[in-house]
Design goal:
Layout (H helix, E strand, L loop, with lengths): L12 E4 L3 H12 L7 E4 L3 H8 L4 E3 L11 E4 L6 H8 L7 E4 L6 H8 L4 E5 L9 E7 L5 H11 L3 E5 L5 H10 L1 H18 L4 H21 L4 H8 L5 H11 L2 H24 L1
Parallel strand pairs: 1-2, 1-4, 2-3, 4-5, 5-6, 7-8
Antiparallel strand pairs: 6-7
Helix pairs in contact: 6-11, 7-8
Bound molecules: NADPH dihydro-nicotinamide-adenine-dinucleotide phosphate (NDP) and (2S)-3,4-dihydro-2H-pyrrole-2-carboxylic acid (A1CAB).
Pfam families: F420_oxidored, P5CR_dimer
Enzyme class: oxidoreductase
Function: Catalyzes the reduction of 1-pyrroline-5-carboxylate (PCA) to L-proline.
Length: 277
């Protein structure tokens, strides 16, 4: 691994793509006091640019000379959009460190199109917006220790960072924490719907469901008990939880859930394969 002298902070960060994930990361950065003027977002969508500009960010419909000043380029377009975006950006960003949040797309394919090996890849998630995200990180060997530290410092305001040893592990991270917030929202939706069926108001259902998720998550992180033991402690013999969990088991919900996550991991691999072809 190279150890050459490198910047330890990124004075100007350019986001290529200003959609959901970019907005979540930017929101986390702004919340922690990063100056909006130190963030430049390239996005062809007028509505997206207007939304970002109202936060004080610099925006461009297509990359121009201003991009040359960016020391970090964050790739936040959909994997299928990367090839076109790279074609218009690569020559303007030869000095920058590149940081991709795109699912599946492999750094060796990015390196080929960008003409640089200085690429780190991440899998963040949308709770970054409220500083409670978790980001899986991987960097090519050409990324220096100082740059890795700078990336970690960038991620920290948005939540936790977790380095993985091999790039392919990011596909599993994608299936777990990248897509994971959607699974949680799906459960919350189901709980709120059931609450309404049982006669509670939507607001009561929402408050109860959210507090239950937050409380259970806090308990699981603070307790020495495993999630399985914590579950058993809720499940009184012959009681209500037993009735509910038996229904879930009989319907194969756990097996389906594991299968669903494997489908997400497989899809991440396919996105990489489709691009590498
Ligand atoms: N959403 C999430 O929870 C997560 C997403 N990711 C990754 O983040 C990336 C972005 O996802 P997400 O934010 O959800 O997607 P979005 O579609 O919300 O954002 C992508 C943005 O990029 C714009 N865009 C398209 N082409 C270009 C271009 N050539 N140059 C600049 N901008 C362009 C799109 O415009 P238009 O809409 O007009 O096409 C859109 O505004 C994906 O690669 C995804 O895998 C990773 C972790 C979690
Ligand atoms: O659904 C997707 O493909 C992206 C990656 C992880 C979350 N959203």
């Amino acid at each position: 691994m190279s150890t050459s002298s490198t910047p330890t902070s990124f004075e100007l960060i350019a986001f290529i793509g200003g959609g959901n994930m970019a907005s979540a990361i930017i929101g986390g950065l702004l919340r922690q006091g990063r100056s909006p003027g130190s963030i430049l977002v390239v996005d062809p969508g007028e509505a997206a640019r207007e939304r970002l500009a109202t936060q004080g960010l610099r925006t461009q419909a297509a990359p121009d000379e201003a991009l040359r000043a960016a020391s970090l380029v964050v790739w936040a377009v959909k994997p299928q959009q990367f090839k076109d975006a790279a074609a218009s950006t690569a020559a303007l960003a030869t000095q920058a460190l590149h940081y991709s949040v795109m699912a599946g797309l492999r750094t060796e394919d990015m390196a080929r199109l960008l003409g640089t090996q200085r690429i780190a890849r991440a899998m963040p998630n949308t709770p970054a917006l409220v500083g409670q995200g978790i980001t899986g990180l991987f960097a090519r060997a050409q990324v220096t220790d100082a740059e890795r530290a700078a990336i970690e410092a960038l991620v920290r305001p948005t939540g936790q960072a977790l380095w993985v040893g091999q790039e392919s592990d990011l596909d599993a991270v994608t299936a777990l924490s990248g897509s994971g917030p959607a699974y949680v929202f799906y459960f919350i939706e189901a709980m709120v719907q059931a609450a309404a069926d049982m006669g509670l108001s939507p607001e009561q259902g929402r408050v109860l469901a959210l507090a239950t998720f937050a409380g259970a998550t806090s308990l699981a992180s603070q307790s020495e008990d495993s999630p399985a033991t914590l579950r058993e402690k809720v499940t009184s013999k012959g009681g209500t939880t037993y009735a509910a969990l038996t229904t879930l088991e009989n319907a194969g919900v756990k097996a389906s859930f594991i299968e669903a996550m494997r489908a997400a991991q497989k899809r991440a691999g396919e996105l990489g394969d489709e691009f590498g072809r």
